[in-house]
Amino acid sequence: MPHPNVARTLAILAFIPALLLAPTPARAQKSASTSPAPAMPLDALFAGDKPWETTPDQLEAAVKPLRTQWLSAAKDSARYFGNYAIWNGAIPVKEAVVEFQNGKLFRVNLSIFNRGDSDNGSFASRVEFEKQLEAWKAAITAKAGVQPVDLGKQNASAVKATGFSWSKAPSVYLLEFSYQKDAKATGVQFRPEFVRLRVSALPKPFGFGSSAAGGQRVSKAALLANVMKDPGGDIFLKNVPMVDQGPKGYCAVATAERVFRYYGMPVDQHEMAQVANTGAGGGTNPDAMLKALTALQGRLHVHVRAISKWDYAEFNKMITDYNREAKRNKKKEINIAGMQTIDIGAIYGSMDPASLKESKTVKKKGDFEKFKREVAEKIDKGIPVMWGVELGLYPEAEIPQAHGGHMRLIIGYNNKTNEIIYSDSWGEKHAMKRMPSDNAFPMTTGLYFMEPFE
User: What range does the domain containing 411 cover?
Assistant: First the structure.
C-alpha cells in the first residue's frame, strides 16, 4: 500500500518542474539591487488630448524605442514587460497590456505590483504597503486633477479587490489592489497580492462587469458564433484572447484568465494566482486551481467542471498498462511500489513515448475515443478546454518550456487529420497550434472547462 500522503504529494509534484524554471526571488532581488536600471517611460501609451483615437500603428510608432509585443495577428492587444514607469517615475510598471476596440485604443492595463514577479519589490508591513498606495493614489490625483471615488470592495471580482476611480475627460482611471490580511489563528501573515491601474476612455464601461472589448458578459448561446469551420476540416474557436504569462510560470492562472476574458470577464492572472495560492516563482497545484475556480462559480456566474483530473488509482493503472507495452517493446518498466513520494515529472521523463502511446491510444482505444469526443463536444458549443499536460514526451517546436507540467487551451480539432488545435499562453506565435490526437492524449494529465450559467 502506498503511503497515505502519496496521492496528495503526487498532485503537488506534477507541476514542480514548471516551478523550477523561474528564477528564485533572492537571486532576482540581488541582481536588481546590484545593478539598478532606470525605468523606461510608458506615458506615450495614453498621452495627448485624444489618446483613445489612437490606432495600433500609431501606438507602435509613438513608442518605437520600446518593444511592442503584439498578442494577436489582428493587433487588438499588445504587451510591454520590463522596467517601466509613468508620470516621471511616480508609478512603476512591471507589465502593460493595451487593448483595442474597433481599431482604436480602448484600455491600458498597468501592473504596478504583483507577487508573481520576484523582482517587483516587496513590503515589510501593511503600514509600508498602505503608505505606498497613498503615494500612488496621490500621483493619479495629480494627473487626473480630481479627487478619487472610493469604490470599496469589488464583489464581482475574483478576489473582491478594493478600488478607487478618477474620472476626468478624456479618461477614467481605476486603481485596484488586493492583499492577504494577518490571521494569527492560522499563522497567515500580511501579504500584498497585486496593485493595478486600468485607464480607459469615458464613458466606456470597464471593470468586472464588462469584457476586454468593452461589452457585457457573453451568453452560452452567443458562444456559438465563435465556432469556425474551414474546408480542410478545422473546427476551432475565434476571439480567444491571448495572454503572455511571461517568466513567472503562471500557465494555469494565465489559462484561466484567457477563458474568463473570452466570456467577457476581465479577471486577470494575478487575481487567479491569489485565489489559487500560486507561488511567487510560478507553478500551481492543479487540485488547488480546480478548487479555486469552483469556489468562484457563483460570484462569476460560471459552471466549473473536470472532464478528467489526476487520480492516484488511475495513474497506477496507467503505469501497469504502460509496463505491459514497455516489456513487450523491451523498454524500461516503471516500478512505483513502495515509494513514499513519487515525482510524476520524473516518471513521465523515463517513459518510452512509443510504448506510452500504444498503451493509451491502441490498447485503451475506448478512452482515446472518449477524449476526442469530449473535446469535440465542448468546441462545438464554443467552449475552450483547459488542458493539463506533461511536456517532453513528444516533439513540439520552439516552446519556452521543454519538460514538466503545463496547462494550455484546446481551442479546436480536426477529425479529418486526427489533430487537436491548441493554444499556449506565451504570446502571438503560440495562439493557434496543432498536434496529432494520438500524441495529445498520452500527455494529458487533466481536462477542465468553464461555461456561463446562461
Answer: 215-453
- The position carrying cell 511616480 is 90
Residues in CB range of 74: below 8 A, 6 or more apart: none
- The three cell numbers locating residue 237: 474557436
Q: H/E element holding 379?
A: helix 365-380
Decide if 393 contacts 211 (C-beta within 8 A). no
In a domain, 6, yes or no: no
pLDDT tens digits, residue range 225-265? Answer: 999 999 999 999 999 998 887 666 578 888 888 998 899 88
pLDDT above 60 for 164? yes
Q: How many CA atoms lie within 13 A of 304 on its CB side?
A: 19
| Cα–Cα distances in angstroms (integers) from residue 250 to residues 61, 245, 282, 410, in the given order | 30, 6, 5, 17
- The answer to whether 57 and 152 are in contact (CB under 8 A) is no
Residue 436, domain CATH = 3.90.70.10
Contact 267, 418 (CB under 8 A): no
pTM above 0.70, yes or no: no
How many folded domains does the chain comprise? 2
The pairing of beta strand 444-452 with beta strand 385-391: antiparallel
Segments in 154-239 forming alpha helices (H): 220-223
